[in-house]
Amino acid sequence: MAKEDRIIESIKSENEDFYTDDSIFDISSWGADLSFRELIERYKTGELVKPEIQRKYIWDRIEASYFIDSILLGLPIPSIFLARTKDEKMLIVDGYQRIMTVYDFVEKRVFSQDGKDFKLSMSKKIHERWRGKTFAELDDAEQRRIKNTTIHSIIFVQLKPKEPKVPDKRNTSMFQIFERINTSGRTLLSQEIRNCIYQGSLNSALIELNEHPVWRNLYGLENADSRMRDIEFILRYLAMSSHDFRTDRTKSISLKKFLNEFMNESQNPDEMVIRNMKDDFLATIHFVADLFGEEAFRNISKIDPERLVHKFNPTIFDSIMLASSYARANLKHSEMIDFRERRRALLKDASYQNAIRIRTTNIDQIKLRISLAMNYLYGMSYE
């Protein structure tokens, strides 16, 4: 298991989150055999769209080399899925790793994972004829074979639901299409799909905020998560802080849908709105880091309440961040207050532990954990 997968405490009710809407899809699709020469050219001219840092390149050198090796051997390769957009571009739904592997090998000549020359692996999985070679070191016939190889492409366009006046239907439907159609061995996570669909100034702001050193320290990884889970937590804070749960009369939310709708509705807001979002997030993480340190979003052990669990906890994160956002403008800071001890007292409260572990997307549970955080940490009420 990668380190990225080990640092987040799992919340069962959120991992099982699934939603659909009542739309009946009308999708037109057709097949086309596209050569890598054509795909490379379309990518270079912007007709084939790689969404903004859409899923980060995650194949290692052996995986990438094995795919090139398969092409050179003339073996069948899996189909890709492309979505035609309203401006006649093609959006990569499934097949990004395959397309970018060939693009990087043929055009960039640099392997994305390490920035070094893209030489095929010396692994015994690779045919000995091509081990350790760059694209330039292949003979002319081998170079043409890679460029001329076709990959079956399933292209689709969504006819229904049509683009509505209310801005959430088509894009939340497209989220489901990405989620259902993606067929690769490493299935897209929710934020990777959002990054594909909701490109705009908010998405760019999330990527920028994710690089901030204070956030990286609180999250627990020096480098950005290759699967965008860290970016999703920033989005989670921005979406939840924009919503008044105190007046929400619904029973529960689908977190996945909640985040989709917020990101769609806030896709390209005014510059001032984006600036305010960024300022609020940065001010709040600095405030939290100053008061609670790098363990701000860690839980206590179930077995030993005096010991901290060194995993990022999503529901501790949202409750402390939201409580701190409300409090920071009104708190009269005192050096005499031990805020870390207050946080430990909060974590030892059985009601709080229940609210961060069980039915965590239930509105009453969300309100309860925010309210308890406000009271324990800052002596304030969530009204």
Strand content: 5-15%
User: Mean pLDDT, rounded to whole units?
Assistant: 87
* Largest sheet data: 5 strands, mixed
Morphology: elongated
Q: What percentage of residues falls in helices of 4 or more residues? A: 40-55%
Q: State the end-to-end CA separation.
A: 42 Å
State the low-pLDDT regions, or none: 163-170
Structural class: alpha/beta
Strand order of the largest sheet: 1-5-3-4-2
Number of helices, where a helix is a run of at least 4 consecutive DSSP H or I residues: 17
Query: How many strand elements?
Result: 7
How do the SSEs run, as a string of H and E? HHEHEHEEHHEHHHHHHHEEHHHH
> What would you call the quaternary organization?
single chain
Molecular structure report:
There is one protein chain. The chain has 383 residues and is α/β, with parallel strands linked by helices. It has 17 helices and 7 strands. It has helices spanning 3-6, 12-15, 36-44, 61-72, 96-108, 140-148, 169-181, 190-197, 201-209, 213-219, 229-241, 255-265, 271-292, 314-327, 339-347, 350-357, 363-378, and strands spanning 26-35, 48-49, 80-84, 90-94, 150-160, 298-300, 308-312. The strands form 2 sheets. The chain has a 5-stranded mixed sheet with strand order 1-5-3-4-2. Strands 6-7 form a two-stranded antiparallel sheet. α7 packs across α8 (190-197) and α15 runs antiparallel to α17 (363-378). It is elongated. The protein starts with a helix and ends in a 5-residue tail after the last helix. The model is unreliable at 163-170 (pLDDT under 50).
